[in-house]
Predict the 3D structure of the following.
Amino acid sequence: MVEADASWRDESLGARVRVALWLRDEVGEGGVFSKASMREAIKGTEQVDRRMRDLRPAGWAILTYRDKPSLQPDQLYLEKIGLPVWRAEHRAAGLRQISAKTRRYVYERDGHMCRRCGISAAEQYADEPGTHARLTLGHVNPHISGGGANAEDLITECARCNETVKHLTGVQMTKEQVWDRMKELPVQGKRQLLAWVKTDFRPLSPAEKVWGMYRQLPAAVREGLEDDLEALMRS
Ligand SMILES: [Zn+2]
């Protein structure tokens, strides 16, 4: 059993537990730290990002400069220490599995499309030819603690968006860059974007929904549908 006085230096402990202990002892609630300093402390833990993310569903709140503008891009802020995962009874906290039924439901509800960029299963990224999207489930709000395993907490994402969204400091664009692109949109585009921003939701059009279903079919089965649709439109 791992007791409350366990140390992050104890290499026999799991990486998630060591990360939690390091945050508790070396950072503390309200403390600022860098991912590099954590990686330096807990050597051999390649995926400190992943371990930190794993703490979120256990009630830990770790904010990036996107959530907290006073931070530098390489800084993180430990807002809240969640469940003491170093205790045996909390070891598995937040690591709840998503049931197969929930998984199916969420994919179906989201039209088998990434809700962040709109790509469908196995579709090629326009800006990355040769790379095909793989769908996965992410949390609606990955930066807030307590992401659950219920359908309403989950969202269909492609693996690329999933990584971008969850990644603590790997931000590709600045606010100014996004704002420049926003300003360039035609009025109709601005209006549409504003509606999505307000609801934090981009609804799929009927054609997009069917596109998502179509992309779910094996390629060999898909083939005939092109001819069928063309024939239908000619008739
Ligand atoms: Zn995506």
Observations:
- Residues 15-90 form one domain.
- The beta strands are 31-34, 61-63, 75-80, 124-125, 128-132, 135-139, 154-158.
- The mean pLDDT is 83.
